[in-house]
Amino acid sequence: MDASDRTFRHELMYPKEFAEAVARCPLAYVPLGLLEWHGEHLPLGVDGLKSHALCLAVARAVGGGVVLPPFYVGRPGFTSFPGTMTYRHEVVRDVLVGALEELEKMGFRAVLMVAGHYGRPQQDTIAEAVATFSRQSRVKVLALCETEAVEHLGYRGDHGGPWETSITLALLPELVRLDAFRPGEQSIPEYKVPPRPDRFAFELGGFRFAWQEDLRRTVTPEDARHKLQDVVRELAKRVEELLAAKDS
Fold it and tell me: pLDDT tens digits, residue range 228-247?
């Protein structure tokens, strides 16, 4: 843990420290993830772990704000794959709306939600939660996947591929096991998933997952550091804009 992390981490603060942090900079960072299979080279919680570490890196760059622990309530998701837990749309929406209401109660005036888990179901649900909350509040909320901040630089999100592996390597190198990575089609034991109204075909089993790129050769610490520098810089710009807008 970086020595400065206690300055920003909600769960490590004492009540007086928390009140002082909110008074200094009433901005909350909300990391969003999912417990989900990403291959044998990344941990199941990588989405939340990397979004949390990324929020801390941005808070250090900006010099303020409070970083919440990661939320692991998200939409599908490879529900049938080992260790994966996904939730219905209304569950995720209500949890996020409730979290935003609690942040407003505690005095935050701006919120940055960083989703480490991607996909249209997740992004649509987050957008609905933010819209629902914003109809009744003046708190400024910006929600995005980390890759949305750097799409103009040519970066694209993936699932356990070069982007996620690189960013995790730069942020949390001890969690990346490149020696366990194998390219090509993956042999994945699958759960039997009961039908539910919001299901997607790929959740129910029989999905063929393959990596074309050999990450053992293409993911390097130097490239990972460059990617991290780019995304932290661009997210810090968004934070400055958010803080400027909170008084409007």
Answer: 999 999 999 999 999 998 77
Per DSSP bridges, beta strands 66-67 and 27-32 are parallel
Cis preceding linkage at 77, omega within 30: yes
Whether the CB-CB separation of 70 and 52 falls below 8 Å is answered with yes
Rg, C-alpha atoms of the chain: 18
> What CATH number does the domain containing 69 carry?
3.40.50.10310
Residue 200 has pLDDT above 70, yes or no: no
Q: Mean pLDDT, to the nearest integer, of 89-109?
A: 97
For residue 110 the two structure tokens come to 């701006």
pTM of the model: 0.95
How many domains is the chain partitioned into structurally? Answer: 1
Residue-number span of the structural domain to which 225 is assigned: 3-245
